[in-house]
Specification:
Homodimer. It holds the Pfam family Aminotran_1_2. This is Aminotransferase. This protein is an alpha/beta fold. It folds into two domains: about 150 residues, Aspartate Aminotransferase, domain 1; about 220 residues, Type I PLP-dependent aspartate aminotransferase-like (Major domain) (Aspartate Aminotransferase, domain 2), CATH 3.40.640. It is built from 14 helices and 14 strands. The strands form four sheets. A seven-stranded mixed sheet has the order 2-8-7-6-5-3-4, with helices on both faces. A three-stranded antiparallel sheet has the order 9-14-13. A two-stranded parallel sheet has the order 1-12. Strand 10 and strand 11 form a beta hairpin. It is globular, with a radius of gyration of 21 Å. The N and C termini lie far apart (about 50 Å). About 50% of the residues are buried.
């Protein structure tokens, strides 16, 4: 009898974590590494949030809490949805866990039966398909073309729905592309759901506050109130509030679904960290003015990276509307050989050779379901980004 399960054999480790770990190992060896593979802001958690965490420790808030979140945190989350999205939820419709990833995982574990299908537009966040597999479901990936802005069209959505479809995984702005859906595009997708009442929407809104220019963020339950009871909206404090390590995510949806997710969590992690919960209350209820400042910072970095990458031979980089990633095509680099002798026949080969020869760490597009591309996180200083893009351009220019 084998030790490890057949389910585990279908799941692969996270490529983004693997690339970040490799970059860290090389840096520990003394290599000059520029890490652009991790999906987290490079600046610190706001001081008022850190102060709230310290105060919680001093006040003795170090015990177990309710399984899926403190009542006062759930009230703060309800206020956030009302303030930012015009959505009304009761505390019984809110679940809090150790990051947005756990909220997604809990939802899938609570709802999927063998054979149930989950539609996942590609490029996708690397964890989506594997979480579906762990939940016993079948991921159905739908490639989205660069000509469509890497966004799912209503026609492609309609064609992918079957009687076994349970969920659509919807992520806007997107990891890895930064693509964001306009209100009209969300409405067009929602029109498809009205024709298929057995399909639910799992909306991952974690990059909500990172949209640029005059782009207006909208979420499905907000745009289509008639689909409110078929939508689970997931968010958290990791990205906008620079709290990736605090591990607080939350979800809002029908009470029956939230109850099922609570049951899953009660038998896995139980409550998220009590101190992190108090910090999250301050993040959601305290000053919000820094969000606009950070958004402007990321927009400037986006423009810098896009302009520099589009000067590199063989690369073509679209301009994303949000998040802090770009997803350029490397089609013009394929079939060539690097100065170090590496054959560039895939985007994984490109990323590996780039790291080994220049010290720039990024993630290859095959990890996200669409090739030949690379994902670059521009959550780094201007100097680091300029240096990295110059190294990438030099690497591309040296291909023969």
């Amino acid at each position: 009898m084998p030790l490890l399960s057949a389910t585990l054999a279908r799941v692969k480790p996270s490529p983004t974590v693997a690339m970040s770990s490799l970059a860290a190992d090389l840096r520990a060896q003394g290599r000059d590494i520029i890490p652009l593979s991790a999906g987290e802001p490079d600046f610190d958690t706001p001081q008022n949030v850190k102060d709230a965490a310290k105060a919680a420790i001093d006040a003795g808030h170090t015990k177990y809490t309710q399984v899926d979140g403190l009542p006062e945190l759930k009230r703060a989350i309800c206020d956030k949805f009302r303030r930012d999205n015009g959505l009304d939820f009761a505390p019984g419709q809110i679940s809090v866990g150790t990051g947005g990833k756990q909220m997604l995982y809990n939802a899938l574990m609570a709802t999927l039966d063998p054979g149930d299908e989950v539609i996942i537009p590609a490029p996708y966040w690397v964890s989506y398909p594997d979480m579906v597999l762990l939940g016993g479901g079948t991921p159905v990936t739908v490639p989205c073309r660069i000509e469509d802005g890497f966004k799912l069209t209503p026609e492609a959505l309609e064609a992918s729905i079957t009687p076994r479809t349970k969920w659509l995984m919807f992520n806007s702005p997107s990891n890895p592309t930064g693509a964001a859906y306009t209100r009209a595009e969300v409405e067009a997708l929602c029109a498809v759901f009205r024709r298929h009442p057995h399909v639910w929407i799992l909306s991952d809104d974690i990059y909500e506050h990172l949209v640029f220019g005059d782009f207006e963020f909208t979420t499905p339950a907000q745009v289509a109130p008639d689909l409110y009871d078929r939508t689970l909206t997931v968010n958290g404090v990791s990205k906008a509030y620079a709290m990736t390590g605090w591990r607080i995510g939350f979800a809002a949806g029908p009470a029956e679904l939230i109850g099922g997710m609570r049951k899953i969590q009660s038998q896995s992690t139980s409550n998220p960290c009590s101190i992190s919960q108090h910090a999250a209350i301050e993040a959601l209820t305290g000053p919000q003015d820094f969000l606009a400042e950070n958004r402007a910072l990321f927009e400037r970095r986006r423009d810098l990276v896009v302009s520099l990458l589009n000067e590199a031979p063989g690369l073509s980089c679209p301009v994303p509307d949000g998040a802090f990633y770009v997803y350029p095509s490397i089609a013009g680099c394929l079939g060539k050989t690097s100065k170090g002798g590496a054959t560039i026949d895939t985007d994984e080969a490109f990323a590996t050779a780039l790291l080994e020869e220049t010290g720039v760490a990024l993630v290859f597009g095959a990890a996200f379901g669409v090739s030949p591309n690379i994902r670059i996180s521009y959550a780094a200083s201007d100097d680091a980004l300029r240096d990295a893009c110059e190294r990438i351009a030099s690497f591309c220019a040296g291909l023969r």
